[in-house]
């Protein structure tokens, strides 16, 4: 068999490192090793029963056919109502599109708008997929490091500096994966003021964790904080994280109708539409009783408090308490240069997470998110597992000299 000729766009990108790390942890577990998996990027809770029932009812009612490309009318109405509830903003139904996960919506938004060489500003630490999605669509990621001292958030001055005539997008993610950082209204307004002066720059605001945040009142969306640039904001959201529906593959986006139309066109030529069954379930999730969201938010918050306290008591590690999402981004600078019991040396955060793996905890190294020396721990797991994992991390750190 001759070598298959792959497209340049595929050679430019990597498989998602978080998926790869999770696969390695699973493999070790399957081989009988006792590993606590803190790599997972999905809620450990089950999809709420009323949502499952709606999916089953849809199957029984014969809702098993193609739907409109951009999602069913009941779903887009439910999304519009949710946007109104969450942000106070009105969006017409044709400004909303539904796809097979927020991930697919982001990919299609970039495919629809990025020409060769167009620049996309990505604050680091970033969600692993953004740079590769930009590269896959022939764009140029422009990574802007955001220091821990400023809560891992993009400063307006840094944004201004990164903008060039080639800039197409800024990707903002609040609450953030991997840091849990959340931009408040004042910070969003300050970024909005910079963007007002650069009318060629659009913002892809990934708000998929908007229900999982630990502040008072309501989370602030960029469309609410920066109304003057609303026409240039594309918001991505979905049901995966808020309603523990990752496997249903359903996400949505809303914003400039021209972009939404282009996404629909691409979707019509690729997937045709998202799953009819998942759409029916998503309607139930968005319009039904929301107590699941409130309960899980409290659970994540309790877990965060436990983990942050335990991690900060380990000499050489430090961890900011994240304001949202279900991840901790832990500073392990104090471990660099130390010797492992096997005579190795911890040179970087990958070495450190491999040492943790040796000691029974799977985590993901900061370099995967473009920011070192840190590691990401997911707290989408039980309090008992979190306590045990933190103990193992403490023991692993003690072994380093
Ligand atoms: N954005 C961020 C920041 C994420 O962490 C994820 C899931 N890991 C997504 C988007 C995509 O989620 P989904 O495709 O399940 O909607």
From TrEMBL:
It holds the Pfam family Aminotran_1_2. One of its GO terms (molecular function) is L-aspartate:2-oxoglutarate aminotransferase activity. Its cofactor is pyridoxal 5'-phosphate. Its EC number is 2.6.1.-. InterPro entries: Aminotransferase_I/II_large, AspAT/PAT-like, NHTrfase_class1_PyrdxlP-BS, PyrdxlP-dep_Trfase, PyrdxlP-dep_Trfase_major, PyrdxlP-dep_Trfase_small. Signal peptide: none annotated. It catalyses: L-aspartate + 2-oxoglutarate = oxaloacetate + L-glutamate. GO terms for biological process: amino acid metabolic process. PROSITE patterns: AA_TRANSFER_CLASS_1 (PS00105). Residues 34-393 form the Aminotransferase class I/classII large domain. Keywords: Aminotransferase, Pyridoxal phosphate, Transferase. Belongs to the class-I pyridoxal-phosphate-dependent aminotransferase family. Homodimer. This is Aminotransferase. It comes from Chelativorans petroleitrophicus.
């Amino acid at each position: 068999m001759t070598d298959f000729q792959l497209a340049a766009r595929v050679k430019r990108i990597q498989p998602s490192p978080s998926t790869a790390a999770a696969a390695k942890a699973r493999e070790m577990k399957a081989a009988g090793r006792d590993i606590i998996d803190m790599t997972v990027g999905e809620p450990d809770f089950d999809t709420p029963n009323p949502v499952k029932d709606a999916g089953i009812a849809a199957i029984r009612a014969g809702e098993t056919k193609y739907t409109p490309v951009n999602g069913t009318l009941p779903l887009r109405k439910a999304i519009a109502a949710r946007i109104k509830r969450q942000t106070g903003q009105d969006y017409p139904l044709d400004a909303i599109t539904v796809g097979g996960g927020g991930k697919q919506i982001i990919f299609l938004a970039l495919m629809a708008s990025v020409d060769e060489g167009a620049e996309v500003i990505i604050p680091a630490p970033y969600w692993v997929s953004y740079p590769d999605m930009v590269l896959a669509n022939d764009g140029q990621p422009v990574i802007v490091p955001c220091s821990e001292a400023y809560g891992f958030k993009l400063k307006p001055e840094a944004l201004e500096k990164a903008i060039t005539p080639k800039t197409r997008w800024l990707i903002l993610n609040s609450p953030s994966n991997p840091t849990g950082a959340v931009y408040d209204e004042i910070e969003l307004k300050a970024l909005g003021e910079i963007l007002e002066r650069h009318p060629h720059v659009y913002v892809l605001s990934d708000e998929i964790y908007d229900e999982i945040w630990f502040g008072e009142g309501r989370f602030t969306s960029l469309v609410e904080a920066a109304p003057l640039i609303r026409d240039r904001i594309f918001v991505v959201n979905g049901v995966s994280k808020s309603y523990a529906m990752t496997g249903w593959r359903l996400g949505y986006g809303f914003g400039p109708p021209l972009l939404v139309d282009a996404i629909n066109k691409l979707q019509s030529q690729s997937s045709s539409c998202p799953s009819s069954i998942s759409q029916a379930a998503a309607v139930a999730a968005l319009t039904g009783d929301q107590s699941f969201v409130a309960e899980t938010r409290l659970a994540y918050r309790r877990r965060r408090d436990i983990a942050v306290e335990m991690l900060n008591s380990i000499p050489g590690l430090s961890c900011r308490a994240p304001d949202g999402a279900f991840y901790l981004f832990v500073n392990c600078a104090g471990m660099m240069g130390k010797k492992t019991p096997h005579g190795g040396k911890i040179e970087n955060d990958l070495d450190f997470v491999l040492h943790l793996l040796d000691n029974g905890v799977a985590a993901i190294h900061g370099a995967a998110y473009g920011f070192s020396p840190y590691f990401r721990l997911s707290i989408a797991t039980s309090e008992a597992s979190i306590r045990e994992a933190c103990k193992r991390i403490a023991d692993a750190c003690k072994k380093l000299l």
